[in-house]
Design a protein that fits this description.
mainly alpha, 8 helices, elongated
């Protein structure tokens, strides 16, 4: 979908086909979390921001693992095994939490909506995707416009953004933990019905 539809569309629109990743991948990654939160039986376990963060982060990291494997194979075939391993190292270790953070942030928003209203709806999904799409688009744009030729500067900029993403995500997690304690969820008083 990204390669054949999103990439050409965003290349025509903005000149940066890499932007399609944010607009295609983010909605698809959070879709499973959204469906879980809405499920009549299993959605009862999804009752607050921390649940959204955990489920979203897990979904994002699962996607990241599959994407990294794909890029490892493609890079190894096109450029050799050393290039494939280097690509895998950079994607997995240096910048390995990005997809988890983006989807965790979208899940956090779904969790806020569920805690406030007792249910989630499509509007919550759309609103919750704003920041993850923006961050993912920024990341892909920087990876595209900062040429590898400037080497260390590109790496410093991307690592700086990675540190910033982790700081944002840690703040969101701390707030969700605070809410869990404040609402009594941390003591097991979350609103869960018997099956």
């Amino acid at each position: 979908l990204n390669t054949y539809v999103g990439g050409p569309f965003f290349a025509t629109l903005t000149g940066i086909p890499a932007l399609s990743g944010a607009f295609v991948e983010e909605p698809l990654k959070i879709l499973g979390v959204y469906l879980l939160a809405r499920h009549s039986k299993y959605g009862r376990e999804f009752n607050g921001p921390m649940d959204g963060i955990v489920y979203g982060f897990a979904a994002g990291m699962g996607f990241e693992a599959m994407e990294n494997f794909h890029y490892f194979i493609v890079t190894s075939v096109k450029e050799g095994m050393m290039a494939g391993w280097f690509n895998l190292f950079m994607r997995s270790l240096a910048f390995g939490m990005n997809h988890g953070i983006y989807t965790g942030l979208a899940g956090w928003w779904l969790g806020i909506a569920k805690a406030r209203k007792g249910f989630v709806e499509a509007n919550d999904l759309v609103v919750g995707l704003g920041v993850p799409i923006l961050l993912h688009g920024l990341w892909n744009t920087l990876c595209t416009i900062l040429p590898p030729a400037i080497g260390i500067l590109t790496l410093v900029v991307l690592l700086g953004l990675e540190v910033y993403l982790i700081k944002i995500f840690r703040k969101v997690i701390r707030e969700a933990q605070r809410d869990e304690v404040l609402w009594g969820y941390a003591l097991g008083y979350a609103p869960v019905e018997a099956y």
